[in-house]
Amino acid sequence: MAAKALSFDVGDYVVYPKHGVGRVIELQKSEIAGMQLELYVLRFEKEKMTLRVPTNKAESVGMRKLSSDKTLREALETLKGKPKVKRTMWSRRAQEYEAKINSGDLVSIAEVVRDLFRADDQPEQSYSERQIFEAAASRLARELAAMEETDEPAALEKILDILRKAAAIHNKDKVPA
Question: Which intervals hold domain CarD-like/TRCF RNAP-interacting (predicted)?
């Protein structure tokens, strides 16, 4: 029953937690170590990578269909929130951010994007902060683009626009009256 709950068709966009949005380009049957396996062949255009996932392992590795509209709205709403800045060491925060990005959960990825965003009038990010921000923003933009049938740059601009507007609101709060 669990195997049937998660089935993808050729042409479907899917989210693989460690790699983001890919597309099922073929269903393959292969014999590996004397066992017959049915495989999803996924193509990740941005990374120019092809991945083969056994159909019976798709659920356990966290592969999923694109998020629902409700989850997308929740993620975009998360971007509007006030950034949460933790005072822990950067290496610890970086690990937490990476874990959220690799979870494949759209709202968690949106939290990373929100927390690491810097408006033009804010202090610049370190190189590693910028890398993690760009990875998270790209992951979010690719899923948004696939859901709204647009391209990644347009989706990224929509995300940055939401972040800029939110930053303008949150930064007003800091100015003494």
Answer: 7-117
C-alpha distance from residue 64 to each of 31, 32, 47, 114 (Å): 25, 24, 19, 23
Q: Are residues 86 and 111 in the same domain?
A: yes
Residues 54 and 82 in one domain: no
Assigned domain for 7 exists: no
Q: Decide if 4 is inside a domain.
A: no
Strands 13-16 and 20-32: antiparallel
Mark whether 84 and 47 lie in a shared domain: no
Q: Looking at the predicted structure, is the pLDDT value of residue 154 above 50?
A: yes
pLDDT tens for each residue of 24-65: 999 999 888 888 999 999 999 888 999 999 999 898 898 999
Neighbours of 76 (CB within 10 A): 17
At 163 the three-state DSSP class reads helix
- For residue 177, is it within any domain? no
Single-letter residue type at 64: R
**Does 43 share its domain with 111?**
no
Helical packing angle, 90-103 and 127-148, nearest 10°: 20
